[in-house]
Specification:
By secondary structure, the chain is an alpha/beta fold. The chain has a 6-stranded mixed β-sheet, sandwiched between helices. The longest helix is centred in the C-terminal third of the chain and has 24 residues. The radius of gyration is 22 Å and the shape is elongated.
Length: about 170
């Protein structure tokens, strides 16, 4: 039985899926930062632990911890992002986590599936992220323009009338 779901993301694989057809003159760093913000929102909304791995081709492993549940790894020493994700998926599944790996790499999908992790193709993840962003915006709009968040709207009538009696000193 798993405690949480852990999302392992092949960062550049998802990035190229997300922005691949986009011809805008936006730097890779800006695209990466936007993707990270979207993943943070997605992970927070769904209460996921998330690790995003970006290949660094020969660079030293560098971690950026955004929160206790969201870590970004830039460059993985002597490993590709795929190898790091595969190894980490095996470790997490052994520890009892539900692991989802986001990648469109067919070979990596087979390996992580063999480890007992779930595979999430980039297109599926992008669509889920779009829907989640839409839900977040809808909830924010409802909070900002919807009903006031009053206690009287959330409690039983009998309790409300009893509180009203107390307030008026008719106990």
């Amino acid at each position: 039985m798993s405690r949480w779901t852990w999302l392992l993301v092949d960062g550049y694989n998802l990035l190229h899926g997300w922005f691949g057809m986009n011809r805008e003159e936006v730097s890779l760093i800006d695209k990466r930062e936007k993707l990270i913000r979207l993943l943070m929102d997605y992970s927070g909304y769904h209460s996921l632990r998330t690790t995003v791995v970006f290949d660094g081709q020969g660079s030293l492993e560098e971690r950026e911890v955004k929160s206790t549940k969201f870590v970004i790894i830039y460059g993985v020493q002597q490993e590709t992002a795929d190898q790091w994700i595969e190894r980490r998926a095996w470790e997490l599944v052994k520890q009892g986590w539900t692991v989802k790996v986001v990648t469109s790499d067919q070979l990596e999908q087979r390996v992580i599936f063999g480890a007992g992790a779930l595979r999430v193709p980039c297109r599926e993840m992008m669509e889920d992220m779009r829907l989640t962003l839409k839900e977040i915006r809808s909830e924010i709009a409802q909070r900002e323009f919807g009903e006031r968040n009053e206690l009287s709207n959330r409690i039983d009538e009998s309790v409300l009338s009893e509180l009203e009696r107390w307030r008026r000193g008719k106990v």
